[in-house]
Amino acid sequence: RADLTPIWQAYNLLVETPTVERVSHSAYVLLIAPNGRPRLYYSRTVAASDVLHDLRRLLRARPLRPSGTGA
After folding, report:
1. Which of 17, 30, 44, 61 could be joined to 38 by an S-S link, Cβ 3.0–4.6 Å?
2. Does 24 or 69 have the greater pLDDT score?
3. CA 65, CA 43: separation in Å to the nearest integer?
4. What is the pLDDT of residues 17-50, one digit of tens each?
5. d(C-alpha 28, C-alpha 70), whole Å
6. Stated pTM of the model
7. How many whole angstroms separate alpha carbon 44 and alpha carbon 68?
8. What is the DSSP string of the chain?
9. How far apart are CA 19 and CA 47, in angstroms?
10. Three-class HEC string of 8-21
11. Is 48:22 a contact under the CB 8 Å cutoff?
12. Is 51:31 a contact under the CB 8 Å cutoff?
């Protein structure tokens, strides 16, 4: 949570975490790409399992590191 707080503040988000399975947000949920751009938008009542499913699909579809890094 402490790691995410600066990101939430940068996007002016209020985040409440009543349970691990469900996270309530003040507006909508963004899945942000490594370049800082929003990749997917979700309703504020999205289940964590749905976001995890999409995140796993995105990670399988593209490399974790940008090309040309030599790593």
Report:
1. 30
2. 24
3. 28
4. 666 566 555 677 788 877 777 888 888 788 889 9
5. 36
6. 0.50
7. 36
8. -TTTHHHHHHTT--EE-SSSSB-EESSEEEEE-TTS-EEEEEETT-BHHHHHHHHHHHHHHS-SS-TTS--
9. 11
10. HHHCCCCEECCCCC
11. yes
12. yes
